[in-house]
Structure formats: structure tokens, C-alpha cells
Amino acid sequence: MQDHRDKDRTAKAPLRTVPRASEVLGELIARPLEPGLYLVATPIGNLGDVSLRALAVLARADLIAAEDTRHSKKLLSHFGIGGELTPYHEHNAERERPRLLARLRAGFSVALISDAGTPLVSDPGYKLVREALDQGLMVTSIPGPSAVLAALTSSGLPTDTFLFAGFLPVKSWPRRSRLAELAAIPATLVMFETAPRLAKSLADMEAVLGPREAAIAKELTKLHETVTRATLDQLAAKLADKATLKGEFVVVVAPPSPEETEISDAKIVAQLNQALETQSFRDAVREVTDVLKVKRARVYELGLALTRKRD
After folding, report:
1. Which CATH number fits domain 148-253: 3.40.50.740, 3.40.50.720, 3.30.700.20, 3.30.950.10?
2. pLDDT by residue (tens digit) across 44-92?
3. Which of 46, 58, 114, 172 could form a disulfide with 221 if both were Cys (CB 3.0 to 4.6 A apart)?
4. DSSP 3-state assignment of 191?
5. How far apart, in whole angstroms, are the C-alpha atoms of residue 189 and residue 62?
């Protein structure tokens, strides 16, 4: 009898959540929205991830500045929000930023949203925030979904210290140079990558960082979400022949082992070999010195030995 009553109470608990959530949202919407710039995080895939506070701000804002208005209209219409919408992205930012700042100075509330996730994370908006703050205008963040944190926490890799490196360079040599700069950082690395470049980027990561543990996340929060965990060499081999990948991915790479933080002669020679394919000896030595942050004399001597071996 007791078990039956417990199950009955458990079944009714979700039913109480709906009116209470509606009540809280109603209370938030009823409050006046102070003038200022609101950085509103939106879902990265699952519309159910939007917060009540985000909905309340979007419903009350005088203006919503969106990276892609066509994309954002789907979210807004889903929740019955029909406020004024204007595009704000990297291609029109120089023209639109003064207009948004003028609206803010006039006492309007402006909500800034990106296509997905938290604004300013690999999205436009940084300069708008800087100028708004420089002019003494109110700026506040409405936190919520983030592909960076979703991938990091699902990866099974250390989360106590991490570094978000955004998108890596498009071409292989600049990409390897950037990875070499990141190699010794004692933190889990989180990076974005596009489908066409993923396989080559993983190969470069394995070449520069070695067989570290890593994870690739795609379709986060969506129906077909997957997080693939393996070492970088295994992931690179697995995707080497994949030509039909679509979308964007989050790559999470484990921090270096204590042994990796030491720059070995082998690592310097590997970087020199790569640099000498496209640069003079002098330029290659200078670049490897700058990238690996080691003494020029050491790189020079290893370079001489390498060229003698080649000859």
C-alpha cells in the first residue's frame, strides 16, 4: 500500500512542474526590463534547453539583434515571441553597431543572440560589448547553453582547467604552428572544427600533440548526439576516409602529460622538417624558435645537423 502511494506521488510531481514553471515565467515577464544590452544564450539544438529568464528577456526586449534573423525566427516563433528583429553579424557589424549603441543610449533594451549557444563565443558581438561598456551602458549576460561546456563535460577528460581555442587556422602549416603554441599548456583543449576540415585537423593534432586522449562531439543536445572518445591517432585514422561529414564539431583534447611539457629535440626537428618544406633555413629557424619558445641557438644547431643529414 505504501509503495502504491509513493508511486502516485511521483507520478503527480511532474504535473505540478508545468503550472509552477508557467507562474515563474509570468512573474519574470511582468517585471519591467531595464534599458541595456542583454547577451542571451539560446539552445544549441534542443529548444527545450532555453531558460525561463532567456524567454522573459526576449519577450520584453525592445529590439533583438540576431546573427541570422531567418534562423532565430524559428526559435522566437516556437515560443510565441514576435518582437522587433534586426541582423547583426560580422559582415554588417561596422554599420549596425553605431545604430544599436544609439538605441541603447536612448534608453532601449537590446537582446543580442547568436545562431546557437552563448553570444561572443566564436560569434560577433565583442566590439559591441566593449563600446557599450566604454559608453557607460549596462551590459549583462543571460547564461545558458554552450557547446564548449557541453562537449567538455561529456568528454570524460579533465574539466578543472581548460582552454577554448575556437577554430584552428584553415591551412595545415599555420594550424600546426597554432597547435604547437597550445601543446605545452597544462589544460584540456576545446576547439571547434568544420566537417570538411575535421579529418585533416585531427591528423595535424596527432602529428603535433601525439596520441593524447580526445573526444569528438557532434549534434550536441539533438536526437542523434554522439560523443566519440579515443586517442587522437585513432580518431584521425577513423575519419581519414570520411568524405561525407556535415556540420560543425567540437574537439576536446586531453592536457599534456608531464613528459610532454618538455620540448624534445625530436619535436624541434619535426617542426623544422615541416617549416623547411616552404621556407628558407633562416626563416624556418626563426619560426620554430618563436612557436616552440626555445633558444634560437638550440634550434640552429639542430637545423644544421638536419640539413647535413639531408645533404
Report:
1. 3.30.950.10
2. 999 999 999 999 999 999 999 999 999 999 999 999 999 899 999 999 9
3. 46
4. strand
5. 38
